[in-house]
Specification:
The chain has one helix at about 25-45, and strands at about 5-10, 50-55, 55-65. It has about 80 residues and is an alpha+beta fold. It has a domain at about 5-50. A three-stranded antiparallel sheet has the order 1-2-3, covered by helices on one side. It comes from Streptomyces daqingensis. This is DUF2188 domain-containing protein.
């Protein structure tokens, strides 16, 4: 099994991520990685991400933008 992220603009079009991803062996590894680099991805032009397992969509798109009123700047889903 390979877990991968699709990086998108707000309109759903695919974009090149500012941080190069890898294929992850587990969903947890993929989610931990996105939790560590989401700010860099957002600053580099990625608005949202979608998680895939072996090419099948698992969930998303998930916005990387902070939610309103969140003082720590965390996203709503991460």
């Amino acid at each position: 099994m390979a877990w991968t992220w699709r990086f998108e603009k707000a309109d759903g079009s695919e974009t090149e991520p500012a941080v190069q991803p890898e294929e992850f062996p587990t969903q947890g590894d993929a989610e931990s990685w996105i939790g560590e680099v989401w700010k860099e991805l957002l600053e580099g032009g990625t608005d949202q991400v979608t998680l895939h397992e072996d090419g099948s969509k698992i969930y998303g798109p998930m916005s990387l933008h902070p939610t309103d009123g969140d003082e720590e700047g965390e996203t709503s889903a991460i």
